[in-house]
Amino acid sequence: MTELLINGGFPEARNSAAQDWCKSCLSVRTLHRWIPILSWLPKYNFQWLLMDVLAGITVALTTVPQALAYAEVAGLPVQYGLYSAFMGCFIYCVLGTSKDVTLGPTAIMSLLCSYYIGGDPVYAVLLTFLCGVIQAAMALFRLGFLLELISYPVIKGFTSAAAVTIGFGQIKNILGLTNIPRQFFLEVFYTFQKIPETRLGDVLLGVCCLLLLNVFFWMKKTLPPLTEAQPTCVRMTHRLVWGAATVRNALVVVGATLMAFSLEVSGHHVFTLTGKTSTGLPPFTPPPFSEITPNGTVTTFQDMVLDLGGGLAIIPLMGLLESLAIAKAFGNENNYRIDPNQELFAIGITNIMGSFVSAYPVTGSFGRTAVNSQTGVCTPAGGIITGVLVLLSLAYVMPVFHYIPKASLAAVIICAVAPLFDYKHAIQLWKVKKVDLLAFLLTFLLCLWEIQYGIVGGALLSGAVLLYHQARPRIKVSDHGPLVMELDSGLSFPAAEYLSDTIYSHALRVSPPRSVVLDCHHVSRIDFTVVNELGVLLRQFKLQNVRLVFSGLKSGLLEVLNAADLPGLQYEDNVEAALQSLLDTHDD
Questions:
Q1: Measured CA distances, 507 to 54, 485, 552 (Å)
Q2: How far apart are CA 485 and CA 92, in angstroms?
Q3: Would you state the pLDDT for residue 24?
Q4: What's residue 80's pLDDT?
Q5: What is the dihedral of CA 422, 426, 432, 436, to 10 degrees?
Q6: Dihedral angle at the C-alpha atoms of 69, 70, 72, 73, nearest 10 degrees?
Q7: Cross-strand pairs, 363
Q8: What proportion of the chain, given as a percentage, has pLDDT over 70?
Q9: Residue 449: burial class (beta carbons within 10 Å; 0-12, 13-18, 19+)
Q10: Euclidean distance between CA atoms 147 and 324, whole angstroms
Q11: Which of 9, 368, 462, 541 is the most buried (most CB within 10 A)?
Q12: Is 421:440 a contact under the CB 8 Å cutoff?
């Protein structure tokens, strides 16, 4: 027996437990949960293939111009947008639980990255790897609930500020201005200061691109529903208009590029161009864990992590928040459920693998997901088509990107982020809950200064409001001879002092002192600090020859109070019984 204990118990029991654990890990249900492609791939058919190919091509025509534009927002060369746009297409096909979601660079994620990487691709790639590790770890340890600590007003304040920051940040490209700082308030100042340096060609092209994009958007929005009863020519025209409006970004960028190319070859330098880009596919190499600066100084991994600072918390959380919100929205719209933790895992693995191909952090894209859904995608396999087309663009079309005018990409970005700023949210918050408007405004204003300060400040204010309500539970006091005090929520340590003061002021600081029935039928939880305060109250009531009687205690609360062995603890099933007990004692 001694030998068995030294060796860790009975070998048969240990082997049986290990076998059971292995069986659970390798069960079909577990494999389907961790690798969702196994659930839908056996049912795949030709009709799904046709719809997925159509959706994949449509999304690719939206992805390529947006990826190029968002790299500009991140402060990186345009090819890094495409480096970031294809890995998520393949990984999410295997690990994702939503048929609609597309992963890739987004406006908000690009803006966040720009604050921490300083335009350095080495920092961007390391940030991608570390974000992926953090996100995958959160999924494995099921820490997705942390995202619920960021309230709706904080999220809306952040997205509205991001829309203003990103949108105004592109005005310099519309005007053809250079050497403008990236910090928002400095950017505003220097943009207005340099207006006399505006390039007419960039302004005309930028305004025309904005008008075209809005016309296409309006055409798509006002298209009447398509019915089978309509003539064939009408249905074909409807599909043609819908298709052109859906890939409007690609049409505008291609048109602007052709115009710029024709002017450049004829010797007229009218537009500010994207400039030289790297050609070919990115090498598949591990992410860098150090950097050698131009002057020969080595920046160590530790120094790089310290430089990234708060970005290692803000970017993974906001990436997860954005993607989960999109997945849930389209899951509800199309009647299917997603697995939040599996979504976190898919994004984490995407970022880890993306760091091997020089990507910067990605998340779910609302605009491209909407295009995917509206085109009729049936499975995540549509992402494979999108990923392949992005790779083909990198392999064969990169030299053409040299001629893309920056004004056209700026127009694409402005139109993409404009819907993120919605003043109606502020009006709704004012009507529904004015205190939540404070969190919205604080987040919005601070995010214009520094993104991380805005999110942290808004979250702290929301937490303070939540704690205030916890510390000031509503207590309804009624006089039935003895006082009846009805609590409307759980009791935790912030409320202990307030509860004690309320009972003191109504029952023990009056003359004569009065007995109290504490109605707890709404109370479902209690902690040690409150229990300790109740013990003090019971002693004070006893010293003044009055009683404190509890009523409506749930079994869990009664178990806690009995375990505390409070002196003089009395309780009844309901208020009427408690009042009767006090009256009977008074008569005696």
A1: 74, 10, 20
A2: 55
A3: 55
A4: 94
A5: 120
A6: 130
A7: 104
A8: 95
A9: middle
A10: 10
A11: 368
A12: no
Residues 6 or more apart in contact with residue 408 via CB below 8 angstroms: 205, 206, 209, 252, 253, 256, 257
State the Cα–Cα distance between residues 211 and 260, nearest whole angstrom: 18
Question: Which helix (H) or strand (E) segment is 292 a member of?
Answer: strand 291-292
Q: Which amino acid is at 368?
A: R
- 3-class DSSP assignment, residue 404: coil
Please name the residues in contact with 447: beta carbons below 8 A apart, sequence gap of 6 or more: 157, 158, 161, 162, 165, 453, 454, 455
* 416 alpha carbon, distance to own chain's centre: 18
> What separation in angstroms does the CA of 158 have from each of 169, 187, 300, 334, 438?
16, 19, 32, 27, 13
CA dihedral for 438, 439, 442, 448, sign (positive or negative): negative
Read off the pLDDT of residues 169-221 as tens digits, 9 standing for 90 and up: 889 989 988 888 878 888 899 999 999 999 999 999 999 999 999 999 898 88
Mean pLDDT of the 123-131 span: 96
**What does the alpha-carbon distance between residue 412 and residue 157 come to, in Å, rounded to a whole number?**
23
Q: State the pairing for strand pair 483-487/475-479.
A: antiparallel
Distance, in Å, from the CA atom of 229 to the CA atom of 215, rounded to the nearest integer, reads 28
Q: Residue 316 corresponds to which amino acid? A: P
Q: How is residue 18 written in tokens?
A: 């290990």
- Cα separations in angstroms, 320 against 362, 365, 368, 393: 10, 11, 17, 28
Q: How far apart (Å, rounded) are the C-alpha atoms in residues 311 and 295?
A: 26
* The pLDDT value given to residue 328: 82
Distance, in Å, from the CA atom of 405 to the CA atom of 261, rounded to the nearest integer, reads: 9
Cβ within 8 Å of residue 50, ≥6 positions away: none
Whose tokens are 């993104």? That residue is 451
Please name the amino acid found at residue 353.
Answer: M
Looking at the predicted structure, is the pLDDT value of residue 258 above 50? yes
d(CA 521, CA 529): 20
Mention every residue, 6+ apart, whose C-beta is less than 8 A from residue 2.
none
Judge whether 480 and 513 are in contact, CB under 8 Å: no
